[in-house]
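Action item from last week, closing it out:
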Amino acid sequence: MNKTTKRIAVVAPIMLLGGVLVWHLARRFFFSKKKLKFRRTDGSIHLVTSSEEWEIFYPQLMSDIQNMKVVGFDTEWVHSGGHRHPVALLQIASYRGLCALVRLCYMQNDIPSSLAAFLSDRSILKVGVGVSEDGQKLLKDYQLPVRGGVDLRNLLVRVRDVFHCPNQSLQGLCDGVLGQSLDKQHAVRCGNWEAHTLSTEQVEYSAADAMVAVDIFVRLVLGKLLGRTQRNNQPLSGWHKSSDDSFSEYEYHENPDMVSESQFWQTATSLCQGLVDSTVRISKNHYSDSRKSPDKRPEKVDMLRAYSIRQRPLYDNCQLMAPDGQMLCTCNASKAQWYIMKGLGEKVSDDPIVVKLRFEPSGRPESDRNYYLQDKQNVCVVCGASDSYIRKFIVPQEYRKYFPPSLKDHRSHDILLLCPPCHQLSAQHDSVLRLQLADECSAPLDSGLGCKSRQDHGLQIVKSSAKALKFSNQKIPEQRKDELRKIILDHFGAASITDDLLETACSIDVRIFNDDYVSHGQKVVNQYKCEHGLEYLEKRWRQHFVDMMKPRYLPNMWSVDHENSGMVKSDLENHRNKMKCEQPSTSTRT
């Protein structure tokens, strides 16, 4: 090989590497002025220990999120003696890096109204992992309802094939989405968050949780917007991380013709549609790295639903009339059709459906000013939304089911419609009153000694031994088989193991029922029967709903003081009972 060829072989790779380096530096310089920047600044963490300090910080926060209303959200508390103390610290961080560590443990009786309004403002997204659970704690501890929560685990599902997270914790999402490890030291996490002065480690730990949450949100939205795929843990094209590899500084670099702030926020709101104030909807299996087992069929996603959203209106506003034409009550279309089908009434109108009964009802309304004569709208009684709704039992079923038939059968007054977000918020408020009733009536909500049943340890051993012999017989050593057989034979007092005996042992009931068990709901109802009357319990739940939710669209004539004493069962109900019809019975309400 001559000298010229050797020189070319040496110089060519150097020139190639130099060209790549020049191109990379030029690209970074060319895209230095961008429309979107997410940069942390020094001194952005604010410790808030009083309402006065919050009022100083609050305008800065609102100014920071003026264009993109999203904050990272988390809470910290102390555990001692197996019990959780009230939330001690609330962490809030904007996407620009402004972070507040609100020490609620020092503001218990002086929560600023602006903080309460901020937390209940549904237009401001609060993003994190377990936001719903944090909100429930704040409601229980400080009566602070949290709305606008978005769980990042739900959001990740909608950004498919872009990020692969090892698990569903904030640490796992940080690893899969940001490509960084989040330091979760046990000593700091389980430290004293109620201490007079928080340590530097506690401040950095708690601030990082909120900052990382909003950073993950930004990355997820960008991943959806740009449609890029993450490979080999490389960051998305256009996303530049600061040189010191800290979570305190992020800056987004992208072609100005590609992304604008309005485009980003439009994508963010679209991505969060239907996820605001919802529970976690996916199973843990979703987060397993699909790249590790490409041939394995993905397991079915477990969509968790706390409530069933109605697919049709609750109120059809059909009318029932007495033989002389007096209106008796309203009902749904299926019930009106039942009267006609059974020959107990005749249709006299189609719009609205009006059915005239062919028998004299046992009771009639005393006046036209009666709740059961009013037409009702299919809207959320709190906010007026009409796109979807869930039935809300104002008096929860765990109490109502122990009411006497005269109160239990006539309950439609206490069934209202709420949209899913309002229903979830109302359920959180209900938990507060349930705890109060539990304390007042000595009716604990948790299990323990008051549980309905417990498992017998000895029976569990017999059952597991039988299952091992039946389903894993070939894998068990002979010596261990003899031990398992002896356990079964000793329990049944038998001489040998037969297939029938093995089957009996496999299906043995290991539960021991507590004959003295009385549920929380039954204890409360029993006490109110003796001391205050069940009407007072009904009114207390109604007043609680009105005070907490402040409904603006209640049906006409709905009242906290609604009385059931004037209600009597109609002859139609007796007809239905005799005919043993499976259609749910409804009496004529007066």
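Closing note: DSSP finds 19 helices and 18 strands in the chain.
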